[in-house]
Design brief:
The chain is mostly helical. It is built from 7 helices and no strands. It has helices at residues 4-12, 17-24, 28-40, 53-60, 77-84, 91-105, 112-119. Helix 1 (4-12) packs antiparallel against helix 2, helix 1 (4-12) packs across helix 3 (28-40) and helix 2 crosses helix 3 (28-40).
């Protein structure tokens, strides 16, 4: 997890973004984004002690967690496991059927590698 509080603290102490990135084990791009978001929210060091790390993260990047974990259509695992018990049925065939179902429904399917990963 990004150390937002530490990045803001080190910036308040006058460290360069490169040194902050090295100190926090983060990229310079991440440090730049955090400091830009902090400026937009008018946050500077010292921060309010009541401002917890999760609240600080949501304050800096309010829509970062609003996205769903995946927009892909999940396969019907119960059906797949049952079908795999039949002779002549393999993962590739079931994936092809899954792709067709997704296409007809207008959903975004998993690629074959993710499909195999999730049905294990």
């Amino acid at each position: 997890m990004t150390k937002y509080r530490e990045i803001i603290r080190l910036s308040g102490l006058g460290l360069s973004q490169t040194n902050i990135a090295l100190s926090c084990n983060a990229s310079k791009t991440t440090v730049n984004k955090v400091l830009k978001a902090a400026r937009e929210q008018k946050l500077s060091w010292p921060l309010d002690p009541k401002l917890t790390d999760p609240v600080l993260g949501r304050l800096l990047f309010p829509d970062s967690k609003a996205k769903p974990a995946t927009s892909k259509r999940m396969p019907d695992y119960k059906h797949i496991r049952k079908e795999l018990l039949h002779n002549g049925v393999n993962k590739k065939l079931l994936w092809t059927e899954y792709l067709e179902e997704c296409r007809l429904a207008g959903d975004d399917p998993f690629m074959y590698s993710q499909f195999c990963y999730y049905i294990q």
